[in-house]
């Protein structure tokens, strides 16, 4: 069951990256004014399994799908392969606007360091493209995560 979830996660990241490739470039400075802080807080909450902090800036769909148990299960699976996020290590990569089913999103990607992954981990954040800038998704991609899903 865990393998299936990880495979779906990796597939989701691939789909989001392809959406990002088709998206419109945005003013990176404006996006980073909110995205950097929200992303850092989510990654730190991920390290601590702090559900309340993890969902503090997420939209209603995210909160519906990601219960505290699901967050902890997902975190355990990911941390089992790549370890904890190294605080402050994320580096902005790019940001694009995209839409799906009349919903507008900002896809913001970072390269980040994790304790048990020798290479960068691609952290993809999906923000609602509105004034609230709530998180609709967070995805991780790295060599170790891809290796696990290919087996």
Automatic annotation (TrEMBL):
InterPro entries: DUF3887. The keyword Signal applies. Gene3D superfamilies: 3.10.450.590. Residues 41-131 form the DUF3887 domain. Keywords: Signal. It holds the Pfam family DUF3887. Residues 1-20 form the signal peptide. This is DUF3887 domain-containing protein.
